[in-house]
Amino acid sequence: MGTGRDEDGDAAAAARDACAGREASLLLLFADSGHALAEAGAAAAAAAPGATVIGCAVSGTLDAGGAHHEGLLVAALGGDDLTVSTAAAPPAGTLRDAGAEAAACLGDVAERPHRALLLLVDAAAGDQQEVVRGAYSVAGAGVPLIGGGAPALLHGGAGDAGVVAAAIGSEAPIGVGVRHGWVPRGAPMLVTRAEGRRILELDGRPALDAYLDRLCIPPAGDPVREALLALGRTYPLGLARRAGEAQVRALVATDPVDRSLTFLGDIPQAGLVWPMSGDAASALEATDSACAQAVAALGGAAPRGLLAFDAGARRAALGPDGSREEAARIARHAAGAPVAGGGMSGEIARTRGLAGFHNLALAVLALA
Amino acid sequence: MSTQGWSTQQLAEFVVAISGAPDVLSALERGVERAAEALDAEVGALVRDGAVVASVGWPRFEIPEVDLAAVAAARGGEIAIPGFGLRPAAVVALDDERRSMLVLARSGEPLDTFELGLVRGMAQALALTLRMHGVIDDERALRLRSQQQAHENERLLARLQERQRLMEGLADIQRLISHRAPLEDILQAVVTTASSLLREAVVGVYLRDRDDPEILRGAAVVGALDGERSTCRLGEGATGRAAAEGRVVVVEGYQQSPDAHRRARAAGLTACMAAPVHEQGGVVGAIGVGSDRAARAFTRAEQEVLLTLAEHVSLALTDAKTVGAMLHQALHDSLTGLPNRALLLDRLTHALERRGGNGRVGVIFCDLDRFKTVNDSLGHAAGDDLLVAVAARLGDCLRTGDTAARLGGDEFALLLEDVRGEREATAVADRVIEALRAPFELHGREVHVTASLGVVCGDGGGEELLRNADVAMYRAKAAGKGRWALFEPSMRAEVLERIELEADLQKALPRGELEVHYQPLVALADGSLEAFEALVRWRHPRRGLVMPLAFIPLAEETGLIVELGAWVLDRACHQAAAWKCAVSVNLSARQLEQPDLVELVAGALRRSGLRPDLLWLEITETVLMHDTEATIGRLEALKELGVRLAVDDFGTGYSSLRYLRRFPIDLLKMAKPFVDGLASREGAALARTIVELGTSLGLRTVAEGIEGPRELAQLRRLGCELGQGYLFARPLTADAATAWLRGAIRRAA
To answer: Which pTM value belongs to this model?
Structure first.
């Protein structure tokens, strides 16, 4: 794996740097918002003939050199012991079907002993958990899933893609890790009415009011509320899981009229949810754990590269210093190998069990 | 959350998820998938009559159908999970006519007893859904055949319409269950639906009496045979027998039947049928239908309808119990068993509505002062034990009818109903502070904790009262902890200011707004310089120079002090190395808790090249009071580096010889109040005691805050060796201190 970055968004230059004269099978493009994905994809493809180009529009990129808020980052994957196949599914139809359709490209890398499926999902299309379920129905338990939510591109594919997938087959192990670092805060609330990603009632009250009261956020117009909001003090909700970290769902919208809350993923009716809290320290701790988990899955082999799918909101909360520290920590785990990543809206990582859709988390893919 | 609590929640989620499926296949697929998700199982399947009808976790063309059928038939065994190999399979029967089995396997440890119980609950819910869909499928088959038999069309159309009504009725009932409607409403909907579908006027759900289980009482009845609330005996009549025998009972020719119910026979019933209802697996009653139509016989389809309705009653009863448990769980803190914030607010609202004419409601917000230290030093288990013990003591401080609640973390609140005035509320606050004074015994150690309390009395909204009490608590904390403060409206502005200051402080270090100032420490005998004390100052872009008292406590609370302290230490060491002179740096309690403190100090010395004995680290007396093994270990490791340790503000805490002996200390810094008190005879005696104590323990003594020549003379007489204060110099910027140092050298020369 190699990486290349261009501050001014010159995709051809970044692609050439990433390939460094070698032949790549896959170019993965992380384009900071502001760069036209389709044009960048075309330029990268022209600069690296023979490679398939996929890309996503991210909020901020990161590589071994640090966290960046501008420019364009390219990761090049290749080599004799690596096979890549890509697919895209249009946004029409159900997301579950799109996930299954895109995952079918795994068949092309079936002869390799180690496989992973990289998924890029346009977060605007709906519940990404459904894409994960669809992909899982094809991939099964033996193939880890990785990726995240971002407008995605398959160069040469037909128009808009709801889901872009890249099946990676390798002779060497592939590891996936994920962590968020949030912890439950206080007692749970009962979801008394919910429709998909929208919670209408909590504890039998309009969801927005119950949520604000529970977090002791004063009503609108109160200066304390404005100060709290200015500090970014909103809290995601967590769903209890059997073991390990709670499943976090990020709050994406509130409706002051019907008093509902909309989250990035499904929240089941009749479930119990906790407001979750975290800080920079716990987020950075999660960074280390996610990387360590991914690298440990390589079974002692040194990583040849790390791909990091980091929550955009998490990077924003970490601030410039925190993001820098995060990039430095990821680079430390890469131990000299290249690193490429970007800020997503929803992260995908499945290694055990079925739950593979995460919010406000860091998902890491390690290639040996 | 306990495994049991987690299980009931997962079951509720599962029922809602599968009840929305549009057809059998998607209900099965969704059921298998959600069951696997809930149990962290990589693979799951539903095997029906030996065939796999739904599965998850295997690639589409690699489903091990033969192995799954074998595992299902044997009700156990091992199944291969892709990427993980063979793992034990959990197999649970669905209890339907097609011998369906739900199979799950995961890479982690095998399912435990609670989890198997959860899977059984899921299987029951899935069977119920299948039964409902099965009714529709049978009708579809009938309709196909009917197309070949034109003369039957009309009759079948009528039956189809009936089925449609059944589905609509069941959907209504399910909606009520999943929306958690009151149990009475759900049961009433069940009997009304039964009456309308079976076209019979007499229907009832009868449940066992809690006090006398031999009696069944009507929980929801239409067309009651008697005016009063109807009852029947267990084993008597169709309903009584269904409840006693746990099976469907049909009695036709009722008037001649030996076990007809007396009143039912008198009412002229010709036929009855009843089906048992269950709660968490056990029979708790039955649903019965009575007909007065001549020669009435119940068809197989009608029996199916009743059975389906009985299962809905069972689901509602089980769910109601779960909701009861969940509601308790949702309203109480699982650790201490106290009400939580939601319940407190509810009681607060009621108290405000109930209060008498002049009565007011009091709220005390209570936050433990050193909880994090206990958690960090003794472990979370000890922290939890402490919270439980505190909860018990809080309960003892309350008057009858008052409520203690845990709001989360180390925050508690007390609701005082109908207080006559603030004094009554502050009296409770006094009792709380007193009650916490005695040490807590945790894991064989005595631990002292205090709490900061905010008190408010009022008649406004519940939320507002609680918020105001919180605001007052902050004031109490800022005023020195272990005390209470009464809310005043002006405090809200302070809180706002605090939040702003906190945000600014987070940016202060990266923006270079912090400075280190230096105050000379001199030998009292000849005024020669001994060391500088490093003091941090904040040059705020709008507020100007901010004094440590205004931001250090905030930095302590938010944890910023660790980063800030490390920065000050680094700067001070570099400066002292340049001056080739000793420097004294304050260490906060938080810094002392950091496992890498020794490494940090060693690093600062290494980078600056400062000789270790020229670095003095100041620790406050109160920090030493709360000593832990880890603290002592760290202080000893610091001593091994060669640095000097000083006790700051000596005399303001509980002066105890014990810790002066226990810790490897070199200097005692006498707090300013003792210097100020020198003028009085008692004050002078106190100062003398401190100096003598230092001398007898072989420690150097430093007097802080010397402002006048008279104090200096007195301290010299007492034998105090070192001092600092405005008499010699104020804290100076690094440049000013350099100039001062040059002057001092000149003066000495």
So the answer is: 0.54
